[in-house]
Amino acid sequence: MNDDKLEVLNQSTYRNKAIVAQYQRRADILPGERFLFQSLKQRLLGSRMLDIGVGGGRTTAYLLDIAQHYTGVDLSQEMVDACKSRFPAHAENFHQCDVRDMSKFDAASFDVALFSFNGLDYIPHQGRLAALQEIRRIVRPGGLFIFSTHLTPSLKSRFAPTANPNSDNWLSDWRLRLLFHWHNLGVRDIDTTPYSLVRDASHNFRLITYYSQPETVLQQLANAGFGAVRTFENYREAELSRESYLTTQLNWAYFAAEA
Ligand SMILES: C[S@@+](CC[C@H](N)C(=O)[O-])C[C@H]1O[C@@H](n2cnc3c(N)ncnc32)[C@H](O)[C@@H]1O
Q1: Which of 7, 115, 159, 238 is 20 to 30 Å from 209 at the Cα level?
Q2: Which residue in 233, 245, 251, 259 sits closest to 35, CA to CA?
């Protein structure tokens, strides 16, 4: 899977009218997010917050109550327009912007940057590294970067040749597995490569997603200059210890990194 294909496919998916409308309807805060936001509430209260890859504004109402200054950005102009029409009183707080070039924002101009629901995973490898540098630049030292990302070990069961014969849904499991294999014929060595670009089933195989080894996420954060990192679950209210994070089979996890 090459980078150009990733850019074209992912950007067209996030500009698609029906998909934008799906994101615009959502306001649910996931259990892992709620737990993380609660755990860090003192750091978030009254902050200058940047919601990167804001999508249709799922997190906006919740964060407007917590932050002092809330700004939302997205690469997709259609997502930005959806936020402006959803939150007309805050329309001037939403901007079209690529996380890889946030030159419109000064260094250290935010206390907290959020890139929720795996938005970082829809950018190719070099762009991801540039995004981490940019985020480190715009968050003040002592601030926080909160984000989630997909993890490679969870892919093993999807690449495994057999479906669970005891599953109530074994036929649809098989269909999904075949589709998954067909879309990912070129993907190799998921156990050993630091990251893999995978077409998973999200939005009906209309996205190419960056999956990292757990160690890779920590290494990339350290290389970009972030300090201590806490890890959290996604659909359960729980923090992951370092040991459980490094061995997790979760499809994706949440992170809070010190800038
Ligand atoms: C999975 S959606 C999540 C949307 C929203 N954060 C939520 O939780 O509902 C990922 C979002 O990231 C945005 N995105 C992808 N690449 C981006 C980039 N390079 N810069 C800024 N936003 C980007 C997409 O347009 C999309 O709206």
Answers
A1: 238
A2: 233
Is the distance from the beta carbon of residue 255 to the nearest atom of ligand 1 less than 6 Å? no
The answer to whether residue 137 sits within a structural domain is yes
Is residue 53 situated within a structural domain?
yes
Q: What's the pTM value of the predicted model, to 2 decimals?
A: 0.95
How far is ligand 1, taken at its centre, from the CA of residue 158, in Å?
25
Name every residue whose Cβ is closer than 8 Å to that of residue 101 and which is 6 or more positions away in sequence. Answer: 130, 134
Give the three-class secondary structure for 195.
Answer: strand
Kindly report the CATH number assigned to the domain that includes residue 114.
3.40.50.150
From the list 26, 27, 28, 37, the residue with the least C-alpha distance to 237 is 37
CB-ligand 1 contact for 124 (6 Å cutoff):
no
- 92-107 tens-digit pLDDT: 999 999 999 999 999 9
